[in-house]
Each structure stands twice: as structure tokens, then as C-alpha cells.
Amino acid sequence: AQTVTQSQPEMSVQEAETVTLSCTYDTSESNYYLFWYKQPPSRQMILVIRQEAYKQQNATENRFSVNFQKAAKSFSLKISDSQLGDTAMYFCAFTDSSGTYKYIFGTGTRLKVLA
Amino acid sequence: DSGVTQTPKHLITATGQRVTLRCSPRSGDLSVYWYQQSLDQGLQFLIQYYNGEERAKGNILERFSAQQFPDLHSELNLSSLELGDSALYFCASSKAGVLETQYFGPGTRLLVL
């Protein structure tokens, strides 16, 4: 069965520091996508970053980067130079080519950036 | 702004009632997905439509149903509502309903009293 696990329910980081959020997943498929979504208090789901499994290079979007370890089925998100606006719930999500293409979400990590 | 619209933004109703949530996908997207998020949990997949046809079902209750119309907008119908149905309901759309990025609407917050 496909699963996504986020083992850190809550984290905090000082403004301007770096923080890493962890995510592991399980699939028997070789073709899949991984995502990090940010959900601020407005509850909007905002796509932060996407990684295609066939790409060896880790995805980067400005201050956000991932560490994609395919063999270990690990997909962590690094936020550099943390800003107060980064305070939000962060969800790791996964979709593969097994049939439905639905997203499977982790339980989320609540990140608080401290001034 | 993802380009996906959902109405209404908020809905307050009583147990036993029926409500309809509406979703308009991004221009050009043929596939619509519905997800439910309860109490800061992760989103749970309910159902997917592609070009008017149901393509996949998740853990959707029998009291819930959905459809996608010829203009590609979709409606999620929730009936015989219970307190536990209170949640945030998201619609997402994608171009072809395959391995690709889905774009999420702002959600409809349902409160059942």
C-alpha cells in the first residue's frame, strides 16, 4: 500500500535560520511524483515544490529545496533563511502511476518561525 | 491564485440536511479531484472525475455523491449530514488526470451543527 509518513508533528525555527522537515513514503511503483504543500492559516493549499522520481537532481525553488533519497524513500524539505511568513502546516504528498493518480498526503508538520 | 474556484467558501448547516459544493477547474483541465480535510489532518481523497466520467473512488461515504458536468465544473453532494462531516472540502484539477500536478481550490469549510 502507498503511504506517506511525516514523523515531526511540530517544529520551530528562529527567523533567518534553516530548518528541515522530514517525509518518508512507500510505493512499489518506479514512476511517481512527490510534493510539499504549505497550508497557512487561510487553509489554502500552496504548492511549494515538486520532485519527479526519474530526476536525480534535487528540486529547488528559491529558499526551498529538497533532499530526495530514492533508495531510502525519503523526501525532506529544507527551508533556508526562514521568514515569519513561512509559519504554516506543511504536507508531504505523493502520487504514482498505479492507477488512480490520487494524491496521498502525510499528516503534516506544523512549523512555527520565531522572531 | 490557482485558477480553481470553489463555492461557497463557508457553509453552516444542521444535521440531517443536504448540501452541494461546487468546483470550477482551471481552464483546459479535464480532471477534477475532491478531497476532505478534517481537523488539521492530511487531505483524504474522495473521488476523481475525468471529462465527465467517474474515474476513481476513495473512501467516499455512500451519503456523498459527485458529478462532473459537460462544462467540466463539478459538484459534490453531501446528504444526511452528521457532525463528523464537518471539514474542509477541497477540489483540485489537472489537465489529463494522470501523473501530473494537481492545482487546489481555496476549499469550502463545512460546519454541521
Short description:
Chain A has strands at residues 3-5, 10-14, 19-21, 24-26, 32-39, 46-52, 60-61, 64-69, 74-79, 88-96, 104-105, 109-114. Chain A has 115 residues and is mainly β. In chain A, the strands form three sheets. In chain A, strands 2, 5, 6, 10, 11 and 12 form a six-stranded mixed β-sheet that branches.
Helix content percent band of chain B: under 10%
> In what range is the share of β-strand residues of chain A?
over 45%
Instruction: Briefly note the structural class of the backbone of chain A.
Output: mainly beta
Poorly predicted runs of chain A:
none
Measured between the Cα atoms of the first and last residue of chain A, the distance is 41 Å
Number of helices of chain A: 0
- Quantity of strands of chain A, as a count: 12
Compute the CA-based radius of gyration of chain B.
Answer: 13 Å
Low-confidence stretches of chain B: none
In words, what does this structure look like?
The complex is a heterodimer of chains A (about 120) and B (about 110). In chain A, strands 2, 5, 6, 10, 11 and 12 form a six-stranded mixed sheet that branches. Helices cover about 0% and strands about 50% of the residues of chain A. In chain A, strand 7 and strand 8 form a beta hairpin. With about 120 residues, chain A is mainly beta. Chain A is built from no helices and twelve strands. With about 110 residues, chain B is an all-beta fold. Chain B contains no helices and eleven strands. In chain B, the strands form two sheets. In chain B, strands 2, 4, 5, 6, 9, 10 and 11 form a seven-stranded mixed sheet that branches. In chain B, strands 1-3-8-7 form a four-stranded antiparallel sheet, with no helix packed on it. The radius of gyration of chain B is 13 Å and the shape is globular. At the A-B interface, strand 5, strand 10 and strand 11 of A face strand 5, strand 9 and strand 10 of B.
